[in-house]
Amino acid sequence: MTSLEVLTVGRVGVDLYPEQSGVPLAEVSTFAKSLGGTATNVAVAAARLGRRAGVLTKVGPDGFGTYVRQALEGFGVSSEHVGTSPDLLTPVVFCELNPPADPPLLFYRLPTAPDLTLNEDDVPWALVRDVPLLWVTGTGVSAEPARGSQRMMLANRGRKKHTVLDLDYRPMFWPDVETARAEIGWMLDHVTVAVGNRTEVEVAVGTSDPDEAADRLLARGISLALIKKGAEGVLVATPEGRWTVEPNPVEVVCGLGAGDAFGGSVVHGLLSGWDPVKIARYANAAGAIVASRLACADAMPDQKEIEELL
């Protein structure tokens, strides 16, 4: 693959989606397999929009690991930096479409996930330093050695333009909120863009009020904060001003993956040099499209679909 425009770092897995909606997991009879994991889905979403994307992550030495690599390449995402953790299994995630808007997730990532074993030998240091956009995640610092590796990546990059933190907070990956706040908070001083919902900004900066959270993020040196407010749209905050982008009403089939579609469009917008409001509008539309579909990676929209909705 030609030189990458975006490198995402972090979670990968195989998502198993019920083919029956609105019933408990115990009553599901069939599942559909899809590529998943926040960092992975963002790379796929960016690739769908024409960006040269790669993922830095790890899988197990099993058939699902092979599937991850094949699926990435099929989506046009480089798998060159997908390593193998020899003693662990590729994570599997079951979701229950009950309720469809906010499906409960059941993660099989024990004793730990391969993506949390990223160490300094796995990191392409020159790429991390020079890639036009680096995307890191809150989950990526939930355990060692990935925590230390992601910290070193940010230190190595030196807060270069387009260093993005997806706040990506999932409580099951953390011992408590205070630990998550300390670790995710450390990264805020080393990135230029922060993306998250109300819950995630509350974990990161101690308040779920979007305007107050934006103030606190900007005070940490963030140049663009995108705070997702659900049915109230998206707050866009920069040192120059702030705006609210209205939501796109859709009939929700599955809420999973919408945030990652949003992220892929943020990548595309930043690399395109768009103004922050245009980025948020485009990203909001991409998220709405994926919320109206089943699956994550397979559901990511292309530019034509996003522009038609807008």
Give a concise summary.
It is built from ten helices and 14 strands. By secondary structure, it is an alpha/beta fold. Helix 1 crosses helix 8 and helix 6 (198-205) packs across helix 7 (210-219).
**Count of β-strands:** 14
Q: Order of SSEs, N→C?
A: EEEHEHEEEEHEHEHEHHEEEHHH
Tally of contiguous helical segments: 10
State the secondary-structure class: alpha/beta
* Low-pLDDT sequence parts: none
Work out the radius of gyration.
18 Å
Mean pLDDT across every amino acid position:
94
Largest beta-sheet characterization: 10 strands, mixed
* Range of strand content: 15-25%
Write down the overall geometry.
globular
Helix content: 25-40%
List keywords for this structure.
10-stranded mixed β-sheet; kinase; 14 strands; 10 helices; 310 residues; alpha/beta; globular; 4-stranded mixed β-sheet
General description of the model:
The chain is of the alpha/beta class. It has helices at residues 38-48, 63-74, 125-130, 146-157, 177-188, 198-205, 210-219, 258-272, 276-291, 303-309, and strands at 6-9, 13-18, 31-36, 53-59, 77-78, 82-84, 92-95, 105-108, 133-137, 163-166, 193-197, 224-228, 234-238, 241-245. The strands form 2 sheets. Strands 1, 4, 5, 6, 9, 10, 11, 12, 13 and 14 form a 10-stranded mixed beta sheet that branches. Strand 12 and strand 13 form a beta hairpin. Helix 9 (276-291) packs across helix 10. The longest helix has 16 residues, at 276-291. The model has no long low-confidence stretch (mean pLDDT 94).
